[in-house]
Design a protein that fits this description.
Layout lengths: L1 H18 L3 H8 L1 E6 L8 E2 L5 E2 L1 H12 L3 E6 L7 H4 L5 E2 L13 E3 L4 E3 L1 E6 L14 E5 L4 H8 L4 E5 L2 H9 L5 E5 H10 L4 E4 L6 E3 L2 E3 L3 H16 L2 H10 L12
Parallel strand pairs: 1-4, 1-5, 9-10, 9-11
Antiparallel strand pairs: 2-3, 6-14, 7-13, 8-11, 8-12
Helix pairs in contact: 3-8
């Protein structure tokens, strides 16, 4: 009877230990934060000429890792794997300009929004277009892997969407008047604008809201809080402004929300 009681007690303690599993503690014990990222998503994550991993998201996650006294291990993923790899515990988190959507949060959690983005239009500086209403029946460029083209088709059904593999192809097509406009996220199009100041311009206002969050494991509140508090610290010590200006060449009009 005594042996049976000890066995039951051991089983209960084992279950409680499993329930109270702490991913943050496990990560800190290992000293390594394994991060899922995309390979080439300028200006968020890409390789420079020295084959160093750089970008806005890279600077953000480096700050977080440093704040938690962790080393980084990057795992290169395609866009369809960023969430599933967190779900299946193949990476600790994913960051790659991932839009925080309610439908995706059923099996994962998200950090607080660390970047507010949205869709906008860009044209050749010589064009007379003012907004999407002027582009009915025109050719509008969009990135292959984004959903921006599909969204714009809903807004302007008579528009013909021309898809491109990268933003450099879009830039050249705009400069050479091969397309009438391009649609995409402000952050991506602004990076084109900065490198083509005299030839291109943004028109109209943002017509979507794209809040970016870090994908995290579900029900790991201590880990999520540690990430969120690191983002808070990033804003409070004004490092966020420096990182934003470094990659988007201006200060942010909207920053992550600070908790009271």
């Amino acid at each position: 009877m005594k042996i049976k009681f000890i066995y039951i007690l051991f089983t209960i303690l084992l279950c409680l230990n499993t329930v109270n599993a702490n991913k943050l503690l496990d990560i800190k014990k290992s000293g390594i934060l394994t991060v899922g990222i995309q390979n080439d998503l300028k200006p968020f994550t890409f390789l420079n000429k020295k084959k160093e991993r750089i970008g806005f998201d890279i600077d953000i996650i480096k700050y977080i890792a440093n704040n938690l006294n962790l080393k980084l291990n990057f795992v290169i993923l395609n866009s369809s794997e960023l969430i599933s790899y967190v779900e299946n515990e193949n990476v600790d988190l994913s960051i790659s300009a991932i839009t925080h959507k309610e439908v995706e949060e059923s099996n994962v959690d998200f950090s607080i929004t660390y970047l507010y983005d949205g869709q906008i239009l860009m044209t050749n500086k010589s064009s007379k277009y003012k907004n999407y209403k002027n582009l009915a029946g025109k050719n509008v460029g969009a990135l292959n892997e984004s959903n921006c083209g599909k969204i714009f088709e809903v807004i302007s059904p008579s528009t013909t969407i021309i898809y491109f593999n990268n933003i450099l192809e879009i830039k050249d097509a705009l400069i050479n008047n091969e397309i009438d406009a391009a649609t995409g996220k402000v952050t991506l199009l602004y990076s084109i604008l900065f490198n083509s100041k005299t030839k291109l311009k943004l028109i109209g206002r943002k017509f979507t809201i794209e809040p970016y969050g870090i994908v995290l494991p579900e029900d790991e509140s201590k880990f999520r809080d540690a990430i969120n508090l690191s983002i808070q610290k990033l804003v409070k010590d004004k490092t966020y402004n420096k990182i934003y200006k470094k990659w988007f060449h201006k200060y942010p009009s909207r920053r992550p929300v600070l908790w009271p």
